[in-house]
Structures are given as C-alpha cells and as structure tokens.
Specification:
- By secondary structure, the protein is of the alpha/beta class.
- It has a single domain, classed as Acetylglutamate kinase-like (Carbamate kinase).
- The protein is about 40% helix and about 20% strand.
- Strands 4-3-5-2-1-6-10-11-9 form a nine-stranded mixed beta sheet, sandwiched between helices.
- Helix 1 crosses helix 3 and helix 5 runs parallel beside helix 7.
Length: about 240
Amino acid sequence: MAFKRILLKLSGEALMGDKQFGIDNNRLALYAKEIKEVVDQGVQVAIVIGGGNIFRGIQAEEGGMERTQGDYMGMLATVINSMALQSALEAEGVYTRLQSAIEMKEIAEPFIKRRAVRHLQKGRVVIFGAGTGNPYFTTDTAASLRAIEVEADVILKGTRVDGIYTADPEKDSSAKKYDTISFEEVYEKGLNVMDMTAFTLCNENKLPIIVFDMNTPGTLKRVVNQETNVGTLVEF
C-alpha cells in the first residue's frame, strides 16, 4: 500500500547534476517527472530542498563570515532551488505552492500549517523554502519539522546512493547496505543519516525515514509504494 502523505527531502547538491555549481536543468526535469508520477497516483507530496549547490552557511563561516549571516544566505539559496523546482513541476502540469519560512510575499506564501495541509489535501505539491527561518538549523531539520507539522507518514531522503551502508560505499567497496535499521542502531553505529537534531526530532515523534537513490528513474515511485528492499528504512 502506498504512503498517503510524504515529505521528500532533496539536497541542493543533487540539482547540480554533472555541473560543479548551480542547477542542471536536465536533473531538475528528471526530478519533476519522478514527482509527477507519485502525485498522479494520488500521493500528497511536500518537499524540502537544500541550497548547497549555491551557498552553504557553514563554509562561509569557515571563510570568516559571521555564521548567522551565512545561514540566512543559505536559506535564500534554498528559495532559489525551490522556485526552480516549482517551475519544473508546473512545466509537467503539476499544481504547486511555495511556502517560505522568511517572508517574501511577491514570490511565496508564508508558512502556515493549516494552509499547507489544505494544499496537500487538494493535490498540490507544497515546497517549503528558507529552511526553518532560523540560523544554526539545517534543511534536514527543516524537513523533519515540516514533516511532523503536516503529519506526513514518512520522510523520504533522496540521495545519490541507494540506502544506508555500514560505511561510505563511494569510499569503501566492502560496505554493506541495510534494508532496515532502527534509530537506536544508527545512534550506536554513528551512521550519518541526517544531522543529529533532525534525526532526534524524527525519533522522538515516531516518524520513519527512508533513504534512497533519487537519481535512478522509477525509484521514488517504488519507495512510495513500499516495495521491499528499495532504499533503507529507519524504523522503531
């Protein structure tokens, strides 16, 4: 049985495709088609996207910029990516709404929980931009927070690897993939699934996480339909 309401978390870096910076329009179009498939199936979709392909607040801090300023700049980068994804989805005929945690009334609605839920109920894809609106919090945390607020069934974390491994599979060829893993095991083994604030929010609110490969066509639909052995499920 398919999930009824999901929150899809995408990294900003994923939008770069084969580029070194910015947005790859082909990758954007691929994501839009994948998302349209599950929307057409009747699944309610909310999305949070990072901004690392444009700007990262932590890197700015390392270069001498004040952390708060850098984080706000990173939030604006997420809005740019959200607008790009919104355009790609609308080009596919998907109805969307962009809600921002920082007021930008010319381009986005403010985040209002009841309005967001109503959009989802009407079959619109809701994209949450500008993170949580607060410095020192990542877009992973924004994804966890928004998923809890709109009562999503699950967070789907789309990455470039097909799940959670015992080690980084891009660096260690002997790394083994988990089909399922508990929150406690992730803590114990020190695995990097989400930042700790985001991960703990999910654990405390009994919100499962599925990590999967967003770049392989058809995988999002398979995850949404809860096919076995697709990605890694973090459960209780």
